[in-house]
Amino acid sequence: MTNLVEAAKSGDKRATLIALRDKLAETIANCDSGRDMASNSKRLMEVMAEIEALPSEDAKVSKHDRLKKKVNDKKR
Predict the structure, then answer these.
(1) DSSP code of 60?
(2) What is the DSSP string of 15-59?
(3) For position 60, what pLDDT does the model report?
(4) Which residues contact 4 (CB under 8 A, 6 or more apart)?
(5) Comparing C-alpha atoms, which of 35, 41, 61, 37 is closest to residue 70?
(6) Domain ranges, ordered by start, for the chain
(7) Is 43 within 8 Å of 51 (Cβ atoms)?
(8) Distance (Å, whole) CA 37 – CA 12
(9) Lowest-confidence pick of 3-7, 44-48, 55-59
(10) Which residues of 1-34 are buried (b: 16+ CB within 10 A; e: fewer)?
(11) How far apart are CA 70 and CA 58, in angstroms?
(12) How many angstroms separate the CA atoms of 53 and 14, rounded?
């Protein structure tokens, strides 16, 4: 699990959201307060939606490069 502070300092939004998601899940797992559980659960769902809304890692690679990789993989 990536440290939330390190992820935030890196400037990588996806890594930061994933670290936040993991931290929230850990907090929820150890939570005794119903009020805190509810607010943390809501935030966890929001963070997960933000992660899903980000472009996929494949989208960062051009269509040309994906096709080139696919052709090269078939040759092997």
Answers:
(1) G
(2) HHHHHHHHHHHHHHHT---HHHHHHHHHHHHHHHHHHHHSPPGGG
(3) 66
(4) 16, 19, 20, 22, 23
(5) 61
(6) 4-75
(7) no
(8) 27
(9) 55-59
(10) ebebeebbeeeeeeebbbbbbbbbbeebeeeeee
(11) 13
(12) 10
- Tokens 């607010």: give the residue: 39
Structure tokens of 4? 């939330």
CA atoms of 56 and 59, how far apart (whole Å): 5
The string of pLDDT tens digits covering residues 7-18 is: 999 999 999 999
Tokens 């890594």: give the residue.
Answer: 15
End-to-end Cα separation, the chain, in angstroms: 34
- Phi–psi pair at 68, nearest 5 degrees: -60, -45
Eight-class DSSP state of 17:
H
